[in-house]
Structure formats: C-alpha cells, structure tokens
Design a protein that fits this description.
44% helix, ATP-binding, binds magnesium ion, 501 residues, binds adenosine monophosphate, 14 strands, Protein nucleotidyltransferase YdiU
Amino acid sequence: MAATDSPARTSDAITGFESTFADELTPLTVEWRGADVPHPRLLVVNEKLAASLGLDVEALRSDDGIAILGGAAVPADGRAVATAYSGHQFGGYAPLLGDGRALLLGELIDVEGHRVDLQLKGSGPTPFSRGGDGFAVVGPMLREYLVSEAMYALGVPTTRSLSVVATGRGIHRNGVEPGAVLARVAASHLRVGTFEFAARNGDVLQPLADYAIARHYPELAELPPTGGGNRYAKFLEGVVERQAALVARWMLVGFVHGVMNTDNTTISGETIDYGPCAFIDAFDPAAVFSSIDQGGRYAFGNQPAVLKWNLARFAETLLRLISPAPDDAIAIATATLSTFDAVYEQHLNEGLSAKLGLADTFVDHELIDDLLALMAEHRADWTGTFRALADELRGRPAPLDILLPRDASDPWVARWREALARHGRDDASTADAMDLVNPLYIPRNHLVDDALRAAHEGDLGPFEELLDVVTHPFERRVDRVKYTAPASEEFNSSFQTFCGT
Ligand code: AMP
Ligand code: MG
C-alpha cells in the first residue's frame, strides 16, 4: 500500500527512536501519520513509565510533546508506520486486519536496555481501517490506561500506558463522544495475527520469525534454522510457555480479557488490547461481560482452552519453518502444543498455592479444588476471599463470614490449617506472605464505570484516585475501604463491556 504523501508535522520532544521493525519487515508496514488534533489536552501521563523510558516528562507535557502523544506530529527521528496483521476473530479467519486506528511511532530503548514499541491508539484512519473511522474515544482509552497499569502493578505481563490525550474531535459512537489517543508501550506489537498474515502473504515469514526470536527469545537465535530442535520449533515452545504462564496469571487475578482473538495474542507473552475486559467479583468460571460474546467463547473459565486454540493457529503458521516434511512438522508442533495443559496447570497451581500461603511447599490439588468448588457454589468474591483467609489466620473471622457460610467454610479451613501446620508455617508470617500475593484492590467493574462516568463529565478526580489505588494493589489504606467491596449481584448480572469503542 502506498504511504501517505502529505508532509507530516514533526516534533523532537521525544527522540531516540529506532525502527527495526519497519526497517527489517517493511512489507508488513505502511508509512503513515496521525490525523490532525483540533484541541489537544493531556488527560494523564505516566511519569514513572516515562522516566523508565528515559523520557523527559516536561518535554512530554509541552505542546510539542502533546503533539506526538496525540498523533498530530510524528517524531523527527522516527519512522511512523501502520502494521499489517490478520487474525481469527471468534473462530473465523479475517485475512486483513492491521492497525486500523493505531500508529507505531517506533522503538525506544528503556533505561534497562530493553527495546520497547511506542504506539498510538486512536490516531486516525489508516489503509487498514476498513469500515472504521480510525478514532477512539476518551472513556475506553482511559479504561485501557487504568486496567493495563493495574495489571502491571499486579505483576501480570502487559503492555503499558504512557498517556491519554483528548483530541477535541467529536467521534460518532452512541451519539457524539470526545476523541482521545492512548500512547501505549509494549515489548512489541507482534501478534499471532502478524504470523498468520505473513504465512499467507509473500515471503516475509522467516524474516519475521527471526526478528521475533532476536527480539523476544534471543537465547534461541544461535540455534540452527533446520533439523531437530531447530530455532523455530523452540520458538513455538517459548511462545506456548509464556502464553500459558500469562493466562494462568489472568486466572489468578480474576481477569477476563473478553476478546481473545489471535490478533490480540502476543508473541512476547504480554497482555494486549484492553477492550471489553473485566474482572470477576464472584468466582464464576462462566462469567462473560462482553456485549458481543454471546456464545461465551471468551468466558472467564474458557480462557486457557481458547488460548490453546490460538496457539494452534500460531503453530500452523510455523509448520513450514519447523520442518520441510509436513508430517514431521505436524508431529513436532502437536507435541509442543500438547505440553500446554501441563505448563498452564503448573503455573496455576503454584500461584494458587502461593495465594493460600503454601508457596514453596507443595500443591494440594484436593485442597485447592475444594476451595474453588465452595467459592463457586457460594459466589464468593474472588479477590476478597484470599485476603479474608489471611485475616482468618490473624484471628479475625468476620471478613470470611461475609463471604462463605461457616458450616461450609469451617471444615475446609480446618484442613487448610492442618496443611499449613504440617509444613511448619506459623499463622502470622503466613498471613503476611499471603497479603503480598493476594491483592486488596483490583479495578472492579463498578469502580471503573463510576470513574469513567465522572471523567466523561469532566471530573478526572475519581479516575486519578482509582488509578492510585489499583496501582498499589497490595497496600492496605484505611481511607480506601470502598475500593475493596464487590459490586452488587444486580450490577454484575447486567454489567456489559464493549469492544472497539
Ligand atoms: P480490536 O478489537 O481493538 O482488537 O481491533 C480489531 C481490529 O479492528 C483491528 O484491526 C483494529 O485496528 C480495528 N479497529 C477497531 N476499532 C477501529 C476503528 N474505530 N477504526 C478502524 N479500525 C478499527
Ligand atoms: Mg486488537
């Protein structure tokens, strides 16, 4: 596709860009730039993240900085591009998706020496926009900012958010909504969908795989390209391992991604694209919040199985690199995919053991399964229960009493305390260790809703307060009690999230 030919405004408020992706994988990119921004206003900027990228926050806050963050100017030393990808959406193949409303400004090297992408979301139409307008609106961009930063603070691998700029452009959604641009930082924007596109278009697949290996699995780069144990077979193993670990982390914090299409599954192992995502309050494997997920394909408890399906689509793209003999390639890929369940279970069970204060000791499957069954039966609050169990060890039974009836919880608690005693764990230090892995504050759906509603009315105060709380998820603060309470069942039974808005 031809690049845009009108001259771009440039800014040097952010410098130091590299563009290895655009340089090495040019066929997957179109040089592009953002739409004009009528009235830019910086709504939020992530000072800590900026510092970790070696960026000058004052420069980001300047008119020239806001021009880059809002998409009105491209970095003087960068090479802004929209990238091509495909994807399986709800199981059906879409041959050309791509950055329909995003712009990859380039790569920065953070203070630890890691290469990261800086991408704008909502910066205007591109050759990949199809029927869409290329824009985004304030609410969902603040939502991605808040939830991605909360996930980071929870220790879940994720893209991060650098800023949200309101553009002053009216965007037609349900009525006219205020436009916004999110600046997002990611280990990369390589997706399973990028490989699906490359496998079916031209001869960029092997360069793409080598690029992804060099960037995310450098320890494999020296392996031979062909033969047993070649770098592509190991690459598949690496992605399976990282994604299995990631989905286990989602399950441990009660996160429902909502739209686990293959274009939203990264090669780096980071969570990406916070569209219709949500957190469960009550433990319920069938929980679905997305308005468009009518079959419950992406329900909370389905996420590991869906991820395995997505990884099978990824494996298909690598077959011809894994071996020129199709039967061999399929046998190797199938064997690798079949490790997914065990890898996932191990991450999940280790995480659950840690949540129960049993880290470094053993995984007691029955103990864990029985607790989950109890929680599901009584719709106990996922986040609250693990903090209440720590309080139980401190001799404070009240929090658990609110969540589970005593006649149901007592026998389980007795077994759990026996397991702790058997492993020589004393109550006080176990409770403290549990509080370090069990968050007190998550971005509960009703809290996010309230904060975004206030932001929509021009008051960013509740958003800033919620952001502060959920980015310190383990620290109890006496004046923040309301942030620990689940929504009413009534709220959650009708709560819906929306995609692509
Ligand atoms: P997402 O649901 O954000 O993962 O997006 C799926 C696909 O739809 C991607 O190719 C996006 O670029 C595209 N898309 C989503 N919203 C818009 C929009 N407002 N305008 C153009 N493309 C969009
Ligand atoms: Mg996406």
